[in-house]
């Protein structure tokens, strides 16, 4: 009987899809069909959770059906656990359970109702007909805010417990994705999250505007999302503590060596990921350089003294001379000391050979061939070929040393 009903439901949904694909249905029919499909999706989700819970109970899985739901419905384990938890929370109140099982409340809004139950009580939520009506009609992003506001108002402490709950849940996770990218996910309380968002957006907007005004080629203009990523990199670096009192720390460790066969410089991170030469030169601009010698088995034979490429005193002097980024005027705290003539070509680490450069200008120099022009204290940055006379100082080969930045 169950399988027959499931097959009929499958056939009916396929018939709906065929009608939509044919293009013969009117807009009013399609809109009404979408409303009905919302109910179908809700009922189907309720069935999946109920069926998985029944299987788990009979087979004594002990997880409320999360694993059976994940496998049978093709959900992630996280999604499956969330749906099972929501169903268990709402099952205590017939009115809420029936609203979800009847497809009137979406899965996303059902989760928000369950959270409201946990923060107050099932009786409080079930007795508020207005809240339930909003759960049936509002979009998930809107109802999420409404449900949180509703719960805070009934906790009677002016939001203190809600803020404490959010603070306790704050976290940032980093992991290596299958695509070779490093993934980041963070959750913060409302205040901290807004502060972080404002800082990132403000710096990203400055970067984006600077690209729009100064970039001469379309491929030099970063998207706003790319600027957000670069702003996060900038704002989490304390490499240029303006007071000079911050202790340098390793953002990243890079090991560079010369290939025996080709004589080419090979730069890698400890995990084995190869770095392009342009990236190595960029990192070497403001890093700790530690000369080392290893034997062929990787055993350390000799290690020299680390040397920072710009001292605290030099940084203070650069701030006094330039005020901010030498090229675009970005805030000095967002810059790094950059060697005009690279160390790899014998460039000294002194004020005459240093300029403060923000990430965007670093990127133009190292990856797009922009050139530094002008005498010390009056350096300017120009795109490739913009100046065909006078003394230009180009960017050369990366330093042939190990570097940790």
Compose a concise summary of this entry:
This protein has 405 residues and is an alpha+beta fold. The protein contains 15 helices and 15 strands. Helix 2 (27-59) crosses helix 3 (66-73) and helix 4 (77-90) packs across helix 6.
Q: DSSP strand (E) fraction?
A: 5-15%
| Largest sheet geometry | 6 strands, antiparallel
Task: Please identify the structural class as seen in this structure.
Answer: alpha+beta
Low-confidence stretches: 239-250, 388-405
Written overview of the protein:
The chain is of the alpha+beta class. The protein is built from 15 helices and 15 strands. The chain has a 6-stranded antiparallel beta sheet. The longest helix is centred in the N-terminal third of the chain and has 33 residues, at 27-59. The protein starts with a helix and ends with a strand.
Q: Strands, helices and their partners?
A:
Blueprint: H1 2-22, H2 27-59, H3 66-73, H4 77-90, H5 94-101, H6 107-119, H7 122-127, H8 129-137, H9 140-155, H10 160-169, E1 171-176, E2 182-187, H11 190-214, H12 224-235, E3 253-258, E4 265-268, E5 274-275, H13 277-284, E6 288-289, E7 292-294, E8 300-303, E9 307-308, H14 312-322, E10 335-339, E11 354-358, H15 359-368, E12 371-373, E13 380-382, E14 392-393, E15 403-404
Antiparallel strand pairs: 1-2, 3-4, 3-15, 4-5, 6-9, 6-15, 7-8, 10-11, 12-13, 12-14
Helix pairs in contact: 2-3, 2-4, 3-4, 4-6, 6-9, 11-12, 13-15
């Amino acid at each position: 009987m169950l399988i027959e009903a499931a097959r009929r439901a499958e056939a009916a949904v396929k018939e709906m899809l065929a009608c939509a694909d044919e293009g013969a249905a009117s807009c009013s029919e399609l809109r009404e069909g979408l409303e009905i499909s919302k109910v179908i999706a809700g009922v189907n989700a309720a069935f999946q959770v109920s069926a998985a819970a029944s299987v788990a109970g009979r087979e004594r899985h002990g997880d409320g059906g999360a694993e059976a739901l994940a496998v049978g419905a093709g959900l992630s384990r996280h999604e499956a656990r969330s749906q099972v938890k929501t169903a268990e929370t709402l099952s205590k109140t017939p009115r809420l359970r029936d609203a979800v099982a009847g497809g009137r409340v979406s899965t996303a809004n059902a989760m928000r109702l369950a959270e409201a139950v946990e923060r107050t009580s099932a009786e409080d939520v079930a007795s508020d007909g207005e809240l339930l009506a909003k759960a049936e009609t509002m979009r998930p992003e809107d109802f999420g805010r409404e449900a949180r506001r509703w719960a805070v108002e009934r906790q009677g402490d002016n939001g203190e417990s809600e803020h404490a709950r959010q603070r306790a849940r704050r976290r940032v996770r980093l992991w290596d994705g299958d695509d070779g990218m490093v993934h980041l996910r963070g959750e913060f309380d409302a205040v901290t999250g807004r502060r972080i968002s404002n800082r990132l957006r403000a710096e990203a907007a400055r970067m984006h505007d600077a690209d729009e005004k100064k970039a001469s080629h379309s491929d030099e203009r970063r998207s706003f999302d790319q600027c957000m990523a670069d702003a996060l990199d900038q704002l989490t670096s304390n490499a240029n503590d303006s007071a000079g009192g911050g202790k340098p720390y390793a953002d990243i460790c890079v090991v560079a060596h010369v290939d025996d066969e080709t004589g080419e410089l090979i730069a890698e991170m400890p995990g084995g990921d190869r770095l392009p030469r342009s990236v190595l030169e960029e990192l070497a601009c403001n890093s700790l350089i530690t000369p080392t010698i290893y034997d062929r088995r990787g055993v350390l034979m000799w290690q020299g003294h680390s040397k920072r490429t710009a001292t605290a005193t030099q940084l203070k002097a650069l701030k006094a001379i330039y005020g901010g980024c030498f090229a675009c005027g970005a805030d000095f705290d967002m810059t790094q000391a950059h060697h005009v003539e690279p160390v790899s070509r014998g460039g000294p680490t002194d004020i005459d050979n240093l300029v403060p450069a923000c990430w965007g200008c670093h990127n133009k120099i190292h990856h797009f061939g922009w050139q530094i022009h002008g005498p010390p204290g009056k350096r300017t940055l120009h795109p490739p070929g913009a100046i065909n006379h006078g003394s230009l100082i180009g960017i050369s080969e990366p330093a042939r040393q190990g570097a940790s930045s």
